[in-house]
Fold these 3 entries.
Entry 1:
Amino acid sequence: MGSLAWEVIGVIDTEGDCAEWTFPAHPGAVRTARRAVRDQLRDWGLDSLADLSALLVSELVTNSLRHATGPIGVRLVRSADLGTILRVEVSDSLPDPPRERVARPDEESGRGLQLVANSSRRWGTRPADSGKTVWFELAVPT
């Protein structure tokens, strides 16, 4: 993993169908999270979902960096109860749910949640003990 190690606070769990990391609130977290997601999905044989998942994770991690403080959690879940679904979660310390908005053509930001909503099977948020989790689901090709 090379430079990934210095930016990752720690791999919390990497058992079969669940991988979870915590990244410091640092701009390098976006690149590191993207790489961790791609690498894990390739390890699971889900190469076809790697690029889209990494793109959507980078949007959500960027939102966390802009609006929250503290570490950012990223979790991938591919479990029996989800069937042919990959769930990707990004957690941060801000309790307020993100708001989807329509960006004007000349704005450089404001399209991240639209991208998540339009590219995923479904998405949402849920409160956490200290903050929130934004998640999305992608269909696993059969």
Entry 2:
Amino acid sequence: MSAAPVAAAPPSRTIPAPVPRAAGAPTATDPALVRRAVKAAALGNAMEWFDFGVYSYIAVTLGKVFFPSGNPTAQLLSTFGAFAAAFLVRPLGGMVFGPLGDRVGRQKVLAVTMIMMAAGTFAIGLIPSYATIGVWAPVLLLAARLVQGFSTGGEYAGASTFIAEYAPDRRRGFLGSWLEFGTLAGYIGGAGLVTLMTALLSDGDLMSWGWRIPFLIAGPMGIVGLYLRMRLEETPAFAAEVAKAETARPKVPLREMVTGQWRALLLCVGLVLVFNVTDYMLLSYMPSYLTSELEYDETHGLLVVLGVMALMMVVQPFAGALTDRVGRRPVIAAGCAGFLLLSVPALLLIREGSLLAVALGMGALGMLLVCFTASMPSALPALFPTRVRYGSLSIGFNVSVSLFGGTTPLVVTALIGATGDMMMPAYYMMAAAVVGGVAVWFMTESAGRPLPGSAPAVEGR
């Protein structure tokens, strides 16, 4: 994306007073401001998944650094246990930051989540090893992960809301797709950096100091992200909501965000379920499936996953633009139908074992996943009215991710262990596709239409 021009004076940090206009009159968006909003929101998602990629790829080393020596499997399980703990507090973060975003503004809350994410990741790079401070090492690691998880609870819903409320109606899908572009870029960046360091550093250097570098990079990244977010004004939709409330802080009871939006929340949970089950299956579980279940070469398996993600990055903006032309529902429905019909053939290809077969099977699943990554950032915010959008979306999104998305690797591993059926990943994705298909059937098309509770938004000149 092209760099946004720098204004002569920094924009106001306060909520701008909306210009009076006739009811229903369209809002003209500033293209330069929209570009800055997209970049600022996408960078936060990139940071979250940069940490995800780093943590996943360097987990064996972290186990040796932070947990007692002895059983390598126990060390690895302890490391992933600390990683999984972040998912437990995500709904709590959503229940705090979401309503706060509807009360004090999207921009302010997104600045706080950026600071917390960067601080949590940076702190991991500073924690002494178990050999130095004993049991306090894993305790501090867990504390840093909980800070990361809590802040992440307000990040995705806030970032997608921020982009959706800034974007003109006819380009919301394209602009929203850059949020998941940031996700893919962050994961590739984190995993790629660890892979490069592993190749360049000796085991001793990696254990003593090298592992800290990827986490310490989060500090400068956070400063850049915070700078970008602090330069932005509040979204026009929230500014208008403030004007209607005749106060700087609209009061939105938590009850209204849940019981008052129960139908939209159910749709949100269903859509996020199919989105995240397939996402975590492909990008988090499949590398382990290739190595542990199919005894595939670990390096080749990781490179295939990174190649699939790079391909998804290329396709992502074009798929987002497609949702603006044909609608979100057809694209999401195509993804659900594809996972229902092609999960078994794709997994059979992957199980065949050759590099070409694995790449084709993973590539097919990756292209189906793009149907969701390109659509959800614009489809999910459109489920809720402006007054409760951030809060309701945070609650629905994080509950679904914590219950279904983040548990996918654990549940599928347990199912394979209980049944001995190596096709369980395909069956699990098919079940998720059915749930997603039901949600798509009942959702309303939002492409090219104003967000609920907001005036039409058109692209300014």
Entry 3:
Amino acid sequence: MNSTLTRRCARMAAAGALSVALLAGGSAAVASAASPTPKPSPSGSKYASAAPGSLTIKASVTEAKVGDKVTFTGRSKGLAIGSKVVLQHKKGSKWTTLHADTTIKQGSSYSLDYKVNTKGKEELRVMDGKTVSPTVTVTVK
């Protein structure tokens, strides 16, 4: 009889502790929903990433002739191996995706080639989802 009472008390104490923990966690969730954390403001471009990853970019040359192949290399941080990276160029005030892409390889690096076709200064960057690299400029003559 005494052991039954002890078990019953232990179960009630455990249920009470669990209830308190659930209520405390629930009120914390309600409090966090009521006061959302501020989002960081984007830096650089208005398309700057709020994603946890980052990309770098480097062009093999800073000057090229029309029709020359330029190789873009870089590294990623916080992005999955095998993620698709696309090359973009700035046309006016908009970024346009070019027909040049690759995947992030083991070691978090990438490399892609692009044949430049338009004379003038080309502002280029790479992008993976919402993660974008800084821009690099190639002057095409």
